[in-house]
Automatic annotation (TrEMBL):
Name of the protein described by the UniProt record: Uncharacterized protein
Top-rank lineage group of the source organism: Bacteria
Organism: Nonomuraea deserti
Amino acid sequence: MSDRLDDLERRIDELRAGVRTAMRARDGARARVLRAELRGAERAWDALVSGERPVKEEPPRLVTVREQVHQGLRLLGAAAQPRLIVAVSAAFFGGTISSSRLTSLRRDEERSFRSSPFGRPYYLCAALTDRLSPARGLLTLSAWPLERRVVGPLSPRVDFLTCAIAVAEQETGDERADRLLVRMARNIPGAADGTLGPPHRGRVIEAARAELRVHADRDTRDRAELAQRAVAQLDDAARLFGAATLGTIKKEYAT
């Protein structure tokens, strides 16, 4: 129980700090999302401390597709394509989702938000392009700051390297995790050692961080500019799911 308490207390501290940061930045949308997640974490802490769990162990709860995607994105820490999220979910959480099932998920999340804004602790939402429209095939988490949810010219590469580091830092011994790391290492100069087996995790991390240092400053500036534009130009829903494009408007009128 102590390990679970420690995890919850760390998460509560992170969420409280995130709420303060969002309030200072006058990002009300993010602050509301974080407060909702904070309340859930505090309820879980109270239940664990008070011993409200039944003595008899309950059967494992079915993890929904939505929750599996959330787990995968939390591990990766950056915007990711469905196929990577699916691979991470299978390798580290025993997930059973397929890329095809994620096709309509973002639209479902947007409909839920618009019908009951901030009614959920988090939303699975789109990354935002330099036009502040939804990036095709890139999912993010609403609790992340805007700077992590927008994508500039260098962001796809930066996010890939960030995800590779996150995968390399996990030590599970699972063959699926090893295969995923092999595929990612092939796309990072200096990460693969030429052997047939999985690359050394430390080598992958070092190579990815070395390339990140080349791109990080420019990408950070680009994202900060995009985030400022999003705050100034978009409402709460559009900050999460992107501004409507001309094509989207035409489709809505057609239907």
